[in-house]
Design a protein that fits this description.
By secondary structure, the protein is mainly alpha-helical. The chain contains five helices and no strands. Heme binds at residue 84.
């Protein structure tokens, strides 16, 4: 009884839509941000056990040379934050009844992609040069 059928035929039938893709990415970025908040909280608690004063904490934070992996993770977190925040504003507009026509949904989605790129690039550049 070995039949060569796909397990999920609906995945091959439907074409991915822009709004559904953004919705899935919104959920993924939210889960990623929640995970990063948890890890940063645990990191701060661990540092708090090592040094009990704010001066020691800041001295440790600014004296450690973080590896490129950590800086890449911070930049990825900034990108996820910019995307999640921008897409959240778009959902708030939809909840209020604005921009519900199909042509406007496509334009707002393209504008969202530009906003995310602009915000993330600005934050990364500011992080590097400031």
């Amino acid at each position: 009884m070995n039949i060569n059928r796909p397990l999920s035929p609906h995945l091959t039938i439907y074409k991915p839509q822009l709004t559904s893709t953004f919705s899935i990415l919104h959920r993924i970025s939210g889960a990623f941000l929640a995970t990063m908040v948890l890890f940063s909280l645990l990191f701060c608690l661990e540092i708090g056990l090592i040094s009990f004063t704010y001066g020691n904490f800041y001295q440790f934070s600014f004296s450690v040379n973080f590896p490129k992996f950590i800086l890449g993770l911070v930049n990825l977190t900034l990108l996820a934050l910019c995307y999640h925040m921008s897409n959240g504003v778009r959902h708030l507009w939809w909840d209020l009844g604005f921009f519900l026509e199909f042509s406007l949904i496509i334009r707002i989605s393209e504008f969202l992609a530009l906003c995310v790129a602009f915000l993330a690039l600005g934050k990364i550049i500011r992080r590097i040069y400031c």
